[in-house]
Amino acid sequence: MARIRLVAGFLTVGLWTLLSRVFGFVRDVMMAAYLGAGPVTDAFFVAFSLPNMFRRFFAEGAFNFAFVPIFAKKHEAGEDAESFARDAFWGMAALLLVFSTIAMALMPLLVWAMAAGFAGDDRFDMAVVFGRVAFPYIFFISLVALLSGMLNAVGRFTAAAAAPVLLSVTFIIAMLLADRAGWPMGLTLAFAVPVAGVAQLVVLWIAVQRAGFAMRFRRPRLTPELKRLAIIAAPAVLAGGVVQINLIVGRQVASFTENAVSWLSYADRLYQLPLGVVGIAVGVVLLPELSRRLRAGDDGAGQHSFNRGLEFSLFLTLPAAVALAVIAVPIVSVLFGRGAWEQADTDATALALAVYAAGLPAFVLHKVLQPLYYARHDTRRPFHYALVSMVVNAAVAIGLMPFIGFIAAALATSAAAWVMVWQLWRGSRSMGRAGQLDAQMRARLWRIVLAAAVMGAVLHGLHLALAPYLVQSGLRYAALLGMIAGGGVAYFGLGQLIGAFSIGELRAVLSRSRRSAPPQSDE
């Protein structure tokens, strides 16, 4: 039953994240058609990245990785978990209010720090305006992250996983209204950002109320428990800051090439689909599960949870990475190739996508390995590892920029991700049984790799065969779907044949998950 609940959690979060990414694709396709890869798009992507960068810095990463284990422990022990959560919620709200006000006043400095290449042209002024409009999003979405952590800790995954859909839906509605009313598209998108944040906070607030947590207002105060939380979170906050420095380095490199910020952003959206569906789903479910197992001293169950998360991740991530690399050009061309989009945009975005795809398994493995540390309240070692990763990222991005241009930013991101995973894996060797591969994982790993490699060869052949149809407007979608379907048949067919996974086992887990998941996750 423990395995069923764990996989049910993966599936609940993964399926809702998939739906979010589908709406995200619709949003990105519309943006590409309306704006293409031009100065307005560059300015908006930089402006939108600012609240998202600080959100990951403050909430989704460091704070939640420290908050969730403490909250889960209190909840399971019957202690006053809600009081602790209320102190954390209203304390964070006060901090974010002050921080947002200061950041909006200093927006020109923030834009320059993110994209110095914009200085002296229209992109800079637009990014400042868009940034001031969009930045309040950090206030709402950071509080959403805390409420999501509460729900995940008590086994309620649906609302937290579903809320991100509202961001893309808000963007889609905003673009349709702007197109019909003649509003400036970039500014309309900027206003849509905080509106989406409000919508997400309302949904999560209702879900937390239904879960039995009133969360009434409490005057912000620094309690001993919050001090302990801050001490645990501090190294992870620093580690999160290192990760965001990597992002800033990439943006800076891209900002000196016209349209490169847009190319990298569109490519980022594409590889974020499998990363979100698999990596985030596993990371969200695995941290509370590992925390419970390790706190109970059950290393065997902890090892099982870790290995099933690893197996689930590689089972879906490796074929996704191969597909994104092998057929990057048709994917980008079919999805974005309309309206203001040009062939040069397709070529540059596809190149970035292929480079990001090389790092996709590392991005997901990072999500699987990190909970091994945070479940033990070990935030120091991930910080030290992140520092090394930051140095690698900066060296590759800045060092190769004069030779290969904007693509150095994508190459640096993938290289740094693999360095981070290698360090996390090496460090986990000292954790005893919980972080070790079990017999099933060792038996299936090479089979998954082989099935993904054969699938890549099949995709390449299908690309050559269907190339004439990929440029015909009436057939391009069918041709792309045919390639994906052919690759999927090759992967799943060979994988089943050589024992990379069991279709019967997956079917049984899915069937049981549908029966067992509602008590765990329905809101």
Outline the secondary-structure elements:
Blueprint: H1 2-35, H2 39-77, H3 81-105, H4 107-114, H5 122-134, H6 137-153, H7 158-162, H8 165-181, H9 185-210, H10 224-255, H11 260-295, H12 299-326, H13 328-336, H14 343-374, H15 380-404, H16 407-428, H17 439-466, H18 476-498, H19 503-521
Detailed description of the structure:
The protein has helices at 2-35, 39-77, 81-105, 107-114, 122-134, 137-153, 158-162, 165-181, 185-210, 224-255, 260-295, 299-326, 328-336, 343-374, 380-404, 407-428, 439-466, 476-498, 503-521. Mean pLDDT is 83; it is low at 508-523. It contains 19 helices and no strands. The chain has one domain (2-521). It is globular and about 65 Å long. The two termini are 21 Å apart. With 523 residues, it is an all-alpha fold.
